[in-house]
């Protein structure tokens, strides 16, 4: 029988991002998401019928001393749910990684497979929901159940992270209460999401850095195919965030 349970069992917090990533990839907390991600991995898309899908929660990706964090929405059913790496193997990733490469945050402009040699420069990518949801729409309960992973990730990145880029309103709404709970002073009412939005949060908890949060429309086809979001717009936000974070970008 398949067992589901809390996202974070009664055990000590992860001591490293590597340990966190392992725990994330083993999570079975949300029955609807478990059923969907595994069914997609079995049935596959015709173009990928000869591939073995990841079919599990997708952990964050990037160096453990990242100064910039990018927060998306959730893995794509035939993208990260197939490849096992954030924004890898889908059209959204094509836009994101091309922009990251253009501003010196990625070693190459494409992301096709987990072993394609891609490396990120001073940047880590994560999401508030780690399983592919039906119709790309996680429920509020699923978002909240996944929250402990994002909290742990921020705690582990706190020594180095200085800026966050949030892709889309869902990620923005999910992140703000996590930041408040993690020890940053989030204003009331909470800052509103918008493309190009920028807010600097002062720390409340000791030993936390000042954190600058940037908003960017999500790199989904709904935005990029309609022209609502252009490559230049993504590059502009990423470059400003990288500068705020003090990332030494490659050229």
Automatic annotation (TrEMBL):
Annotated keywords: 4Fe-4S, DNA damage, DNA repair, Hydrolase, Iron, Iron-sulfur, Metal-binding
Region of interest (Disordered), residue spans: 1-20
Top-level taxonomic group: Bacteria
SMART domains: UDG, UreE_C
Span of domain Uracil-DNA glycosylase-like: 59-238
Transmembrane intervals: none
Classification via Pfam families: UDG (PF03167)
Family matches, as InterPro entries: UDG_Type-4/5, UdgB-like, Uracil-DNA_glycosylase-like, Uracil-DNA_glycosylase-like_sf
Signal peptide: none
Family the entry assigns: Belongs to the uracil-DNA glycosylase (UDG) superfamily. Type 5 (UDGb) family.
Protein known as: Type-5 uracil-DNA glycosylase
Organism: Rhodococcoides kroppenstedtii
